[in-house]
């Protein structure tokens, strides 16, 4: 089981209470599709992803960004057993969506960048460390049911 | 994933905006790397103080950014333009190349905190490509 320090717990809850979830989810997903364009392979049904402007204004990308963030908020509420909380999501990503799990790290990087932009100076080294540990646990849980 | 003319222009534009803060960016990025990725401390066991804000961290952060600046100025031919740094990393420092990616991430996080309006997704993709190519040039002589 993952051990969280008091600082890490408090930091994660603080981040998610401070960030504008309607903004962060869509911003992170659209950034991922722009910075790592091969990730677009999973979104063939989303319509126009031809350039950065199209991606940033695509309503399906925005909607899906919110779905992703809602998933993260579920993990925040269940920090002591993200593995079990994410069991069905892991099966979904593996069996139905066929997402290469290395992509989870790419989206994690974009989430770090977007949260850093929102928090500025407040995104200190210790806060970054806690946030990236949280994302690493999320990624490991999403990978768990792959076989 | 080589740099297009568009990428080079975007990198130069971003660099012009951030270069005045290069010392602070370098110090913060290096300090962050040592905290967020503690395994990187193994390369600095000879320093008396590894804490954020310490003299060795600030001095070395500045040095790293001088290398990045050199990369920006030689963006059309990184392999040849960074030959001296490449040999340094290959034969003396022998930093495992996986760490270049780690430092690149920390650099970009710092830029995002300090210049959120300039570090757009378009600037990010160009800069990320640039840092990857820089890392490739630095590890050119490893084997």
UniProtKB/TrEMBL annotation, chain A:
Keyword RNA-binding: no
GO cellular component, as recorded: blood microparticle; haptoglobin-hemoglobin complex; hemoglobin complex
Highest taxon of the lineage: Eukaryota
Residue intervals of the Globin domain: 3-147
Biological process per Gene Ontology, one example term: hydrogen peroxide catabolic process
Molecular function terms from GO: haptoglobin binding; heme binding; metal ion binding; organic acid binding; oxygen binding; oxygen carrier activity; peroxidase activity
Sorted UniProt keywords: Heme, Iron, Metal-binding, Oxygen transport, Transport
Pfam families: Globin (PF00042)
Family to which the UniProt record says this protein belongs: Belongs to the globin family.
Protein name listed in UniProt: Hemoglobin subunit beta-like
Automatic annotation (TrEMBL), chain B:
Name of the protein: Hemoglobin, alpha embryonic 5
Ranges where the Globin domain occurs: 2-143
This protein's record includes keyword Zinc: no
Organism superkingdom: Eukaryota
Family: Belongs to the globin family.
Matching PROSITE patterns: GLOBIN (PS01033)
Stretch forming the signal peptide: none
GO molecular function terms noted in the UniProt entry: haptoglobin binding; heme binding; iron ion binding; organic acid binding; oxygen binding; oxygen carrier activity; peroxidase activity
Keywords of the record: Heme, Iron, Metal-binding, Oxygen transport, Transport
Annotated GO CC locations: blood microparticle; haptoglobin-hemoglobin complex; hemoglobin complex
InterPro entries, per the entry: Globin, Globin-like_sf, Globin/Proto, Hemoglobin_a-typ, Hemoglobin_oxygen_transport, Hemoglobin_pi
Pfam families (UniProt xref): Globin
GO biological process, one term: hydrogen peroxide catabolic process
């Amino acid at each position: 089981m993952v051990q969280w320090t008091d600082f890490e717990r408090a930091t994660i809850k603080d981040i998610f209470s401070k960030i504008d979830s309607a903004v962060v989810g869509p911003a992170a997903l659209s950034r991922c599709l722009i910075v790592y364009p091969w990730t677009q392979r999973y979104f063939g049904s989303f319509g126009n992803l031809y350039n950065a402007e199209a991606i940033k204004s695509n309503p399906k990308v925005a909607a899906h960004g919110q779905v992703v963030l809602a998933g993260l908020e579920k993990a925040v509420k269940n920090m002591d057993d993200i593995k079990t909380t994410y069991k069905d999501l892991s099966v979904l990503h593996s069996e139905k969506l066929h997402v290469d799990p290395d992509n989870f790290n790419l989206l994690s990087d974009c989430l770090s960048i977007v949260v850093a932009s929102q928090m500025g100076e407040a995104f200190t080294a210790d806060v970054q460390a806690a946030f990236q540990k949280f994302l690493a646990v999320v990624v490991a849980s999403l990978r768990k049911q792959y076989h | 994933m080589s740099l297009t003319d568009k990428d080079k222009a975007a990198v130069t534009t971003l660099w012009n905006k951030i270069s005045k803060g290069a010392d602070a960016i370098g110090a913060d990025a290096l300090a962050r790397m040592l905290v967020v990725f503690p395994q990187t401390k193994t390369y600095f066991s000879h320093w008396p103080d590894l804490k954020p804000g310490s003299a060795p961290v600030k001095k070395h952060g500045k040095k790293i950014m001088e290398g990045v600046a050199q990369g920006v100025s030689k963006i059309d031919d990184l392999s040849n333009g960074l030959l001296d740094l490449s040999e340094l990393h290959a034969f003396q420092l022998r930093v495992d190349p996986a760490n270049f990616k780690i430092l690149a991430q920390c650099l970009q996080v710092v830029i995002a905190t300090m210049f959120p309006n300039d570090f757009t997704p378009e600037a990010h993709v160009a800069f990320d490509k640039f840092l990857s190519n820089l890392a490739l040039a630095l590890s050119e002589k490893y084997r």
